[in-house]
Fold this sequence. Notes:
Layout (H helix, E strand, L loop, with lengths): L5 E9 L2 E8 L2 H13 L5 E9 L5 E10 L28 H10 L1 H7 L3 H5 L2 H8 L4 H17 L3 H24 L8 H7 L7 H13 L5 H12 L8 H11 L3 H8 L5 H12 L11 H11 L4 H16 L12 H12 E2 L2 E2 L2 H15 L8 H11 L3 H12 L2 H4 L3 H14 L3 H4 L6 H17 L5 H21 L2 H5 L6 H12 L8 H14 L4 H7 L7 H14 L4
Antiparallel strand pairs: 1-2, 1-3, 3-4, 5-6
Helix pairs in contact: 5-7, 6-7, 10-11, 10-14, 11-15, 13-15, 13-16, 15-17, 16-17, 17-18, 17-19, 19-21, 19-23, 23-24, 24-27, 26-27, 26-29, 28-29
Amino acid sequence: MTGAHVSFEIQVLSDKHWVVTQFATDEAAAKAFADNLLQKGNHAAVRVVRDYLRGDGLHAETVIQEKTATVKAAADLSLSPITEAPPCAALADFYEGPARLVMGRLLRKYWDEMMVSPSEMLHSAPEMKRFGDKGTLLFSAIDRVSSLQAAALDEESKARRDVLTKAWDEGLARARAFAATKPKVAATMAEILKAVEKGGDEHPYLCRSLMALRLLEVRNWVGKLDVLLAWAEEEAARPVTALIDGFVADIVLSAQLIQDLLGYQANLGAALVQLADLAEGKAQPAKFAPETFTRLNALFGTGALPQAAGVLMARVTRELGGANPLSRNEPKQEFEVCHKVMHRLVHHRGVVGGGAAAEAILHRVSRIHAHLGNVTAAQALDLTLSALADTVHRVHYLLALLASPLGRGGMADMVSDALIKRIREAETIDAWVPARLPPPERMAAMAAANRAILANAELEPELKADLAGRIDEALARYLVEDGVIERIDKPEDPLALRAIRLIKFCGSGVLIDGKSLNLARARVIEHLRQPNFEEKFLSSVPEPGKAEQHLREFHRLLGQTGFR
């Protein structure tokens, strides 16, 4: 109903009372005005009241629309707990990975609320100012970090606070100087590099500043990643791949981004396996994962993102060693899921995540078996080792644990004893790796365990030589007892084929530089020492036209594998 006798009041709720804020003669316009007031977020509720003047001079009022604003809770920008903060000596250190990682973890709530990464803020004067204006957040962060750094350096906290405060002021001045040049936003990496080609010593900073300028235009994590991935795909970006890696590392610190990126995951354990796969570029996108995931996985696969891969693996180890269930919805599968995560991290070539992952696994196993009562460190270690598939897995795990703070501390003797015991008990290849695996895989696993022993910095040289030698003995015994070399060097095959197969076997990496490799090398030497070897080699090649080519290939392989 409209006309001269009808009008509309737009009312807002103020201090529990409805107050008229505007009049209108059109119903649609009145409702639109009310909606606009609500969207601005200044009022808890608005309504539109139709007023009709009756013929007797009285007014009839009807509420035709009433809406309540969704009350948005104040953002929680409190600091998150951290236990360490590597000391920074100069302003340049604040732009490096360790410092940004501390900022990312300490201020993770702030970054997710503002959709800004540490690198973006550190290279933007407006963002640094906005952060500094957030109450006491800046000073609280400086105080937290300075306390940790002071304890590590055995200094006074005030001295470290002064250092951090001075660095912040210098960084802000530097960002303001860049902003004063009124830089233009560059869309491509080629444009960025062209703009800073005469930057001299300031080239990296200027490049990062222009990158931040573009990324700050995008206020969601996946969108920022898309920009970075597009830059990484440019030919011009090769010299600055490390800078792109730094920004990606900052962004994948966000738990919110990780959830969006991974898509549907059955449980935390599955998510951790997917993150480990992503860090190595081996992941398959899950249901509802964005296209960005596939592109990012491909870039990880090239090895171009070591900083970002480190951030992902640090998240895996933190979550694995934490208190959140790996299988929340199906508690009975907790150990089964843990077993899958363990064997994703511990394999026949080593431990993904090193000592940190080894410690996290030990803590998780202790927690899973807490129903047994107070699980001691020795019991937790035995339970962990018994859950691993074979001796090679156990050796790699124990070596990684030895390199961890826990393994270098109170558990050092316990871990060393466990390592010595298991190696000395495993005298045959069947005690090291399951017989169901293909022979090359079994031998490669033992060779990798041997190399890991020799490379370990925590063991004494004499002990390393003894343990590594025992693995070599077991592998050499397998070569002899199973006739491995005889199966490669079949008498009925042409000499050229036998010689090339043997030399490739020597250089395949599945043998240990010791008794096992010497057995294979001895057979090669036996062939080389026979009279008229080269003539026999050439005559044994089925295609005479390719005989010389095969002989040249054989000599090339001889040189590669150390024969003289």
